[in-house]
Design a protein that fits this description.
The structure holds two protein chains of two kinds. Helix content of chain A is 41%, strand content 21%. Chain A is of the alpha/beta class. Chain A has two domains: 2-183, Thiamin diphosphate (ThDP)-binding fold, Pyr/PP domains (Rossmann fold), CATH 3.40.50; 196-323, Rossmann fold (3-Layer(aba) Sandwich). The chains are: A alpha/beta, B alpha/beta. The A-B interface holds A 30, 32-33, 35-36, 55, 57-62, 85-86, 89, 123-129, 294-297, 299-304, 307-308 and B 43-45, 95-96, 99, 101, 103-106, 108-109, 121-126, 154-155, 157-159, 185-188, 192-194, 251-252, 317-318, 320, 322-324, 327. The structure holds thiamine diphosphate and magnesium ion.
């Protein structure tokens, strides 16, 4: 087992998938450029050639549509969008096409495509370079949406996504790229739809997605020192999400905080909260708390960014609130 | 496409001096911003248009105050040339409350509605259809306004560009499509993104006027813009102006990005010899303007930029309590 950063783990998954399966190829704007991809795609073009590592024109709609067409006809493309914001130009191929085709044609046609979108916020980049819109895509039947928070899962979920046979949105966060951890050398899958218990506890369940899972790990340290025994669940997949694990945890603790660094209204946290209330209402000992972004676009000024983004401290505060 | 050798003609000294001043302001402002990025006093991503100043200055000189311009990530020049306030831009780059977007936008989101700059935003090609809409609005309201879409060669990779040209041509809208073709989209050359170097031909395909210009010749840009504005104002519809130019700095920030392209260093040397500002200065000298007067104008530009930096530094940060203001506009009287 090697220690890799999150970005290196993504690269390793790509490299191994490309080596293993000639149907896999990569297409997107900026795949060769570290400004866009960090080290997560570094030198893949040198290793696998520019026929399979396609740094496309600024044509998100056509590139994504083309990947979908290639997927339908036997390839296993990975599409790269260096910011999720840019991916919106490909809303039609993703939402109208990829998501629908299996159902629409009664399973005779499938769309085994992975669409990777990077959340790249902060750094005074502002409203159009910072958005975390996983909930928008999780809303759509036919799409799967995964959001790894560790190097181990970054690799395993990409492999599972490529092999899944369905359109999978793979969403990674630049704020996690330097995080390091143990990553097995083998090609392995982290099953889509399964969450991970990062810490068992009995007082309160914290369910966190992506970057907030890393923040929750810090929050847990503080809370442990204060004598609060947190059960921390890293959701990993937001569509489908691991209901059973969340229900059984909340069944045990009776308290739930959901941390998702995206807008609160209509978000993943709302979906989880509604499901918990609907399915295991009687287990709840306190109202559910959500730690999300305010319903506003991302500002640029660092002062406003600090007020806007949520982190470990907000999780600590919410946990303490549901424990009163 | 080989870039034609520039044969710059001159206009009266007064006009030339105004071009010179306009370009120099943009250059100095961006050089200063580059330094501030380097020293990390400025953190917002800044895309510098150094080397390309003749395009915004030449185009905007042909516009009326009420005409509108629309830009992208590299729009300091568009904003300044159309009359946007320098202090407000500098403060925005610093993320201050006195910024043109009150610190919500940074370098990539400039705005000056009173000057016809309704917004510049970094999603490539996003404002091209908006400019078409401004043209439609002007036509429906009979205001006589012209709308200018400024965008790069990279933006022509997007469907937005092609759809917008067609719409504007179809409805004969008063729009100037100004492609600042600096031969790169981030790290990729034009050649890596299209088979032919023929952006201007999109105009022919859509049945509208199209011209290729030396984008480093401010007079050529100005004169072509005048003709395009005339067409727009007389109901002849849109024009595509492909302005050939080159950015001296990298895609983002002050560095030169020497690692991209085939021979960027040689290209840079070549294009630096075609500096739009130096060419304009030569014409002014040839026209009899004294070296002392030129030095004076140059010193004024530097002082104006320094004053803007002082203004930005002294300005307050935005107040956190404003974080959720303006998500929705107030209901306006109709
Ligand atoms: C829709 C979208 N896709 C990708 C990007 C990333 N991006 C920012 S600027 C840029 C290059 C644009 O090149 P060009 O239009 O030629 O303008 P230039 O930077 O050369 O001025 C790209 C690809 C973006 N901002 N928006
Ligand atoms: Mg360009």
């Amino acid at each position: 087992m090697a220690r890799l950063t999150y970005a290196q783990a993504i690269r390793e998954a790509h490299a191994q998938l490309l080596a293993e399966d000639p149907r896999v190829f990569l297409i997107g704007q900026g795949v060769r450029n570290p400004w866009y991809a960090g080290t997560s795609l570094q030198d893949l073009d040198k290793e696998f050639g520019r026929e399979r590592i396609i740094d496309s024109p600024v044509s998100e709609n056509a590139s994504t549509g083309a990947a979908i067409g290639a997927a339908i006809t036997g390839m296993r493309p990975i599409v790269f969008h260096p910011r999720m914001d840019f991916m919106l130009l490909a809303a039609d191929p993703i939402i109208n096409q990829a998501a629908n085709w299996s159902y629409l044609f009664a399973g005779q046609v499938s769309v085994p495509v992975v669409i990777r979108a990077v959340i790249n916020r902060g750094g005074e980049q502002g409203a159009q370079h910072s958005q975390a819109m996983h909930a928008l895509f999780a809303h759509v039947p036919g799409l799967k949406v995964v959001m790894p928070s560790t190097p181990h899962d970054a690799k395993g979920l990409l492999i599972a996504a490529v092999r899944d046979g369905n359109p999978v949105l793979y969403i990674d966060d630049r704020w996690l790229y330097e995080l390091d951890g143990e990553v097995p050398e083998a090609l392995y899958e982290v099953p889509i739809g399964s969450a991970a218990v990062r810490r068992s506890g009995k007082d309160v369940t914290v369910v966190a997605t992506s970057y907030m899972a890393a923040e929750a790990t810090k929050a847990v340290e503080t809370l442990t020192q204060r004598g609060i025994d947190v059960e921390l669940i890293d959701l990993r997949s937001v569509k489908p999400w691991d209901r059973n694990l969340v229900y059984s945890s909340v069944g045990k603790t009776g308290r739930l905080v959901i941390a998702d660094a995206a807008w609160m209204s209509g978000g993943i946290a709302a979906e989880i909260a509604a499901s918990v209330v609907g399915e295991i209402f009687h287990a709840l000992k306190a109202p559910i708390a959500r730690v999300c972004l305010p319903d506003a676009p991302a500002p640029t000024s660092v002062v406003l960014e600090q007020a806007y983004y949520v982190g470990a401290e907000d999780i600590v505060a919410s946990v303490e609130k549901v424990l009163v | 496409m080989t870039v034609q050798k520039t044969r710059v003609v001159s206009l009266p000294n007064e006009q030339m001096l105004s071009f010179f001043r306009g370009m120099l302001r943009i250059r100095r402002a961006e050089e200063r911003i580059g330094e501030l990025v380097q020293s990390r006093e400025v953190r917002t991503p800044c895309h510098l248009s150094i080397g390309q100043e003749a395009i915004p200055v030449g185009i905007c000189a042909a516009l009326k105050p009420a005409d509108t311009v629309w830009g992208g990530h590299r729009s300091h020049g568009h904003y300044l040339a159309k009359g946007g306030d320098l202090n407000a831009m500098m403060a925005e780059v610093f993320g201050k409350a006195t910024g043109c977007a009150r610190g919500r936008g940074g370098s990539m989101h400039l705005v000056a509605p009173a000057q016809g700059v309704f917004g510049t935003v970094p999603l490539v090609a996003a404002t091209i259809p908006l400019a078409v809409g401004a043209g439609l609005s002007a036509k429906l309201q009979g205001t006589g306004q012209v709308a200018v879409a400024f965008f790069g060669d990279g933006a022509t990779d997007e469907g937005h560009f092609h759809e917008s040209l067609n719409l504007a041509a179809l409805y004969r809208l008063p729009v100037l499509f100004v492609c600042e073709n600096n031969l790169y989209s981030t790290h990729l050359t034009l050649k890596e993104r299209r088979v032919k170097d023929n952006i201007v031909e999109s105009a022919t395909l859509h049945g509208m006027a199209g011209v290729v210009l030396d984008g480093n010749d401010v007079v050529a840009v100005y004169q072509a813009a005048q003709q395009a504005v005339h067409r727009a104002e007389t109901g002849e519809g849109p024009t595509l102006l492909e302005c050939r130019t080159y950015r001296w700095r990298g895609h983002v920030g002050p560095a030169a990005d020497l690692e991209v392209g085939e021979d960027r260093r040689r290209e840079l040397d070549e294009w630096r010899r075609r500096d739009p500002i130096e060419q304009c200065r030569d014409l002014l000298s040839a026209g009899g303007l004294s070296a002392a007067r030129l030095a004076e104008v140059s010193a004024e530009a530097t002082e104006e930029i320094e004053a803007a930096v002082r203004f930005a530094r002294q300005s307050p940060d935005p107040d956190e309590s404003q974080l959720l203001h303006h998500v929705y506009a107030a209901r306006s009287g109709c």
